[in-house]
Amino acid sequence: MAALPSNSVTINNLDFARKALEIHDTIAVSQFLRLADFLSTDKGALEYRLAGYQDDSNKPSLKLEISGKLHLLCQRCLGPMEYDLDAHATFVIVRDEASIPETEDEADEVDYLVAETHMSVADLIEDEILLSLPLAPKHEIEACDAASKLNELKKPGPFAELQKLKLQGRKTDESQD
Ligand SMILES: [Zn+2]
Q1: Residue 25 and residue 169: Cα distance in Å, rounded?
Q2: Of 1, 12, 24, 155, which is most buried, counting CB atoms within 10 Å of its CB?
Q3: Out of 43-47, 119-123, 133-137, which region has the weakest mean confidence (pLDDT)?
Q4: Do residues 83 and 69 lie in contact, with contact meaning Cβ atoms separated by under 8 Å?
């Protein structure tokens, strides 16, 4: 049998929580196929920490932290854009779908997971990344290639003309370093 790649790590999530187990590892961005559409490149790796614990009312829970750099696509100029990912989530593990409360209290930021003996850690991480990404990531306006083009479309008044010159000046400065 071939060696399993690290994206195939599965846990018994209920057991993991009750025994307060912990995984601290890195995972290649290229393993996240659903994320691929949002990326300019899938190079690099993210660091994550998954820890099991019992919450204040003794409910089996998981805490997930993911951090690292993603290379997204700017939704204004479609150019590459570096994004510092820093996602945190906590999950309470419930026996079945029916045990998930009807209305999740949005204020407490707790999600629910159904108990599974072979829950994919990579899938959990990818879900969390997708939830934490901005809906339409964009460069800061001064750094965006589309900004000068957008300004040309507007009918420029004297002040806009000045603004345009300032923007172009800043852009040139940045591209020189
Ligand atoms: Zn841009």
Answers
A1: 43
A2: 12
A3: 133-137
A4: yes
pTM recorded for the entire structure = 0.77
State the residue for tokens 């614990």: 53
Ligand 1 centroid from CA 81, angstroms: 7
What is the chain's alpha carbon radius of gyration, rounded to the nearest angstrom? 22
Contacts of 132 by beta carbon, 8 Å cutoff, 6+ apart? 66, 85, 87
Query: For the packed helices 158-176 and 145-153, what is the interaxial angle rounded to 10 degrees?
Result: 160
- List the shell of residues around ion ligand 1, using CB closer than 5 Å: 74, 76-77, 79, 139, 144
All residues at 6 or more sequence positions from 109 whose CB lies less than 8 Å from its CB, including other chains: 89, 90
- The kind and range of the H/E element at 73 are strand 60-73
Tell me the pLDDT tens digit for each residue of 28-53: 999 999 999 999 999 999 999 999 99
